[in-house]
Specification:
This protein is mainly α and 157 residues long. The chain is built from eight helices and no strands. It folds into two domains: 92 residues, no CATH class; 56 residues, no CATH class. Helix 1 packs parallel to helix 3.
């Protein structure tokens, strides 16, 4: 969410607020914000977003959802609330994914299983198959442990 929010929408917001007349200058500032996030510098990032948001003024009730005032105010709130969760240099050093791609891919895999043709599910059945599917796709031996434990329970009965 964080990278997408900064990359996707802020060029127009910056042009609106800061008066950047060219796409190139607004793109440069947007990339500087992304770099601060990448480097784990949450406080300077929030300070710059707050300055841009202050310059734009408070959101108006009549502003559409994608208006720069609303987008900037929302981002300031997001980074204030999640500051401790955006330590991307540490996450990268540990080999953790920092994008949403892995989650989106997992959602597609689960969706394919439960939304196939001629498949109809009630809530308990869907929850059960999704739990099994998550064990199957996990990379922490959860599925092996589950199936080994399950087969021993069946033999004991």
């Amino acid at each position: 969410m964080a990278f997408a929010a900064l990359r996707g929408g802020h060029q127009n917001n910056i042009r609106y607020v800061a008066g950047h007349s060219t796409v190139r200058s607004s793109s440069r500032l947007a990339e500087q914000l992304v770099q601060l996030l990448w480097d784990g510098k949450a406080q300077p990032l929030r300070e710059q977003l707050t300055a841009l948001s202050t310059r734009a003024g408070p959101p108006l009730e009549t502003d559409p959802p994608n208006h720069p005032r609303k987008v900037l105010a929302s981002n300031v709130g997001y980074f204030a609330k999640h500051q401790e969760h955006i330590d991307y240099p540490s996450y990268r050093a540990k080999g953790w994914p920092i994008g949403s791609g892995i989650t989106e891919s997992g959602v597609k895999l689960f969706g394919k299983r439960v939304k196939g043709t001629e498949q109809f599910w009630n809530v308990p059945g869907a929850e059960a198959i999704l739990a099994l599917r998550s064990k199957w796709f996990s990379e922490d031996e959860a599925s092996t442990s589950y199936w080994l434990g399950w087969s021993s329970k069946v033999r004991a009965a």
